């Protein structure tokens, strides 16, 4: 079953328009495949988005080269965030599909400086399934990986 996304009408993807220079952005970094810019919502000072330039809705739509480029840029930006803002922690977040909490359907990563008591939460309930169930999940994934080549 494909991920649940909300495709933008042609020419309406906000990140594609940002990449094209049609809308303003506080750009931080740019290379051939990626762009980094300040998130308008700023969970904490220095909150930066890293996006691929080509329109790709989710992680599953990226080429391997784009995925690698996005992670290289995220690491580079995280290093700059650490140097510029000196946070005691950094959260790297990437969401896919509506149910995965994705809100802009153009692949991007959030680089979020973190501080104790900043009110930003990433808590989820632990389910602690039995080992046999985990082994079954692992087998399903191994089969999927093998069939993908």
Automatic annotation (TrEMBL):
Q: Where are the transmembrane segments?
A: none
> PANTHER family per the record?
ADENOSINE 5'-MONOPHOSPHORAMIDASE HNT1, HIT FAMILY PROTEIN 1
Which residue ranges does the record assign to the HIT domain?
A: 14-121
- Recorded source organism is Azospira restricta
PROSITE patterns per UniProt: HIT_1, HIT_2
Q: Where is this motif: Histidine triad motif?
A: 106-110
List, alphabetically, the InterPro entries matched: Histidine_triad_CS, Histidine_triad_HIT, HIT-like, HIT-like_sf
- Superkingdom, natural source: Bacteria
Question: Which GO BP terms sit in this record?
Answer: nucleotide metabolic process
Q: Which Gene3D superfamilies match?
A: HIT-like
Q: Which residues form the active site?
A: 108
Q: Single GO molecular-function term?
A: catalytic activity
Organism lineage string? Bacteria, Pseudomonadati, Pseudomonadota, Betaproteobacteria, Rhodocyclales
What protein name is recorded for this chain?
A: HIT family protein
